[in-house]
Write a structure and sequence with these properties.
CATH architecture of one domain: 3-Layer(aba) Sandwich
Helix content: 40-55%
Structural class: alpha/beta
CATH topology of one domain: Rossmann fold
Radius of gyration: 20 Å
Number of strands: 15
CATH superfamily of one domain: NAD(P)-binding Rossmann-like Domain
Strand order of the largest sheet: 3-2-1-4-5-7-12
Order of helices and strands: EHEHEHEHEEHEEHEEEHEEHEHHEHH
Largest sheet: 7 strands, parallel
Number of helices: 12
CATH class of one domain: Alpha Beta
Length: 341
């Protein structure tokens, strides 16, 4: 496939999309907005779940038809009528202490959406999961899909998303194919997740590298993720899980420095030893439990696990099964962020 500076070209797929209509959750989020752009650009109708008038306006402006409601709406089956594909991208992304509310959205919400999809006759469903389902605070080096879930997940986000992934895949049966995809560190133009948090930390003086930030990380440009989800719809095998990432891992410090530079911001040189941050996270967890939630830790193991150690993904399975190849290089994606800042 040809690498480009922007959206996926119409010729990027090797076959016509066998899709009549997509039902999308999380349509007003970063991934959801770009999925609407991606499939709307190919002439695929999208029905996007919208919890508020502002969300409905946002997805409508992008070319999707809004369906008012939430993950637990009794009329979800009605909204999915005429759709043959579900993309479940909605999630509570909180990397703090999390809790019952996060598990309700990520687990119970997934169950409700997939129950509705089954009743509506959806033929193919994509569960947008995360590499964090494997996170426990230790490095994940060139991991593939055979890696088991950890006995002690890093936190509420990891545990709730792992359970949500298993729930979604339990619906894989005759009549509905379910595929889970696990992206890592989604980035690019229109980023409303990682980049704003980094900029906020720099501007508030709270930014610091962890042990100089010289460890590797996998990333995925938003256009590569959209293309990967398209490939999963086309070629994904029943009940399978796929890691998706950019072509090669990159040094964490180099990548974050380059992202900040696209916004005209210089990365501060301050660095904190990894062992100190791990102690802070562990002590915070002890105090949080001892205070029955009264103490809110400044750093959770969940946040530590996703940013303080190497996390690199092996994407050979996606290449082999899906024919997945990144279509936007890291250099082109960074250049685009400069253009549109």
């Amino acid at each position: 496939m040809t690498k480009t500076n922007g959206a996926v070209p119409a010729a990027a797929t090797d076959t016509a999309l066998p899709i009549r209509r997509i039902f999308l959750t999380g349509g007003s989020g970063y991934i959801g907005r770009n999925l609407i752009r991606h499939f709307h650009g190919k002439g695929i109708p999208i029905m996007a779940l919208a919890r508020s008038p502002s969300s409905a306006q946002k997805v409508s402006d992008l070319g999707a038809e809004p369906f008012s409601g939430d993950l637990f709406s009794a009329n979800l089956v009605e909204g999915m009528a005429g759709c043959d594909v579900l993309i479940h991208a909605a999630a509570d992304l909180n990397h703090g202490v999390g809790g019952k509310a996060q598990h309700r959205v990520n687990e119970d919400g997934t169950r409700a959406v997939f129950d509705a999809a089954k009743a509506a006759g959806i033929l193919r469903a994509i569960m947008v999961s995360t590499e964090s389902v494997l996170a426990d605070g230790r490095p994940l080096v060139n991991v593939d899909e055979s890696r088991p879930f950890p006995r002690r997940p890093a936190g509420s986000y990891s545990s709730s998303k792992a359970r949500a992934e298993r729930l979604a895949l339990s619906f894989n049966e005759a009549g509905m194919t379910v595929i889970a995809i696990r992206p890592r560190m989604v980035w690019g133009r229109d980023d409303t997740t990682a980049l704003p948090q980094l900029l906020g930390a720099v501007q508030s003086g709270q930014f610091a590298w962890i042990s100089k930030g010289d460890y590797l990380t996998s990333t995925i440009h938003i256009a590569n993720l959209c293309a990967g989800i398209e490939r999963a719809i086309l070629k994904g095998k029943d009940g399978e899980v796929y890691f998706l990432a950019d072509e090669l891992p990159v040094q964490f410090r180099r990548f974050v420095t380059d992202m900040l530079a696209t916004q005209g911001v210089a990365a501060p040189p301050k660095s904190i030893p990894r062992i100190i941050l791990r102690l802070i996270a562990d002590l915070g967890a002890v105090l949080h439990r001892a205070s029955r939630g009264g103490f809110v830790p400044p750093l959770t193991l969940q946040a530590y696990a996703t940013s303080a150690v190497e996390i690199t993904l092996n994407i050979e399975k996606a290449r082999r099964d899906l024919g997945y190849e990144p279509i936007v290089s890291r250099e082109a994606g960074l250049a685009e962020m400069v253009t549109f800042r």
